[in-house]
Design a protein that fits this description.
By secondary structure, this protein is of the alpha+beta class. 48% of the residues lie in helices and 21% in strands. The chain has a five-stranded antiparallel beta sheet with strand order 4-3-2-1-5. The relative contact order is 0.08.
Length: 144
């Protein structure tokens, strides 16, 4: 009995398309990392400890220096997160300052003028003018 295990050209093309589609769905949730973070640093440190030469263990000074670097990285990460929160609060506070004021907004090629009737807080605050919401970044001027 002779079994043909070769795929036809159409079957091969269909399979390739299905595999490519599946791989794209896997990659769509992931972005390529361009820098190392604290988790990467910790993985490198653990890997280094696991694969060190037992006859030449990591020097105490080197280990302490690496732990200090890890601690510094952790603190910088925390500071960055706190600065982002502070930035959001300042942007929301600045947007709240125009509540009830007449503003000029650039929306593409259109310039809209009106009174800010509502503010929506967030990373990018929104201002409600003439029944529509615009990013606070679009406010060009505050009028008297």
């Amino acid at each position: 009995m002779n079994v043909n295990t070769a795929m036809s050209g159409a079957d091969l093309a269909r399979t390739k398309i299905e595999v490519d589609t599946f791989n794209k769905t896997l990659d769509s949730g992931r972005a390529a990392k361009t820098s190392l973070d604290k988790d990467d640093f910790l993985k490198i440190l653990v890997t280094q400890l696991q694969h060190q030469d037992p006859t030449k263990p990591l020097e105490d000074k080197e280990f302490i220096a690496q732990m200090a670097q890890f601690s510094s990285l952790e603190q910088m990460t925390n500071m960055s997160a706190n600065f982002a929160k502070l930035s959001n609060l300042l942007a929301s506070s600045e947007a709240s300052g125009v509540l009830g004021r007449n503003v000029s907004i650039q929306d593409g090629d259109n310039r809209i003028q009106g009174v800010v009737s509502e503010i929506v807080r967030g990373a990018t605050p929104l201002v409600g003018v003439n029944g529509k919401y615009y990013s606070f970044d679009q406010v060009e001027s505050v009028l008297q």
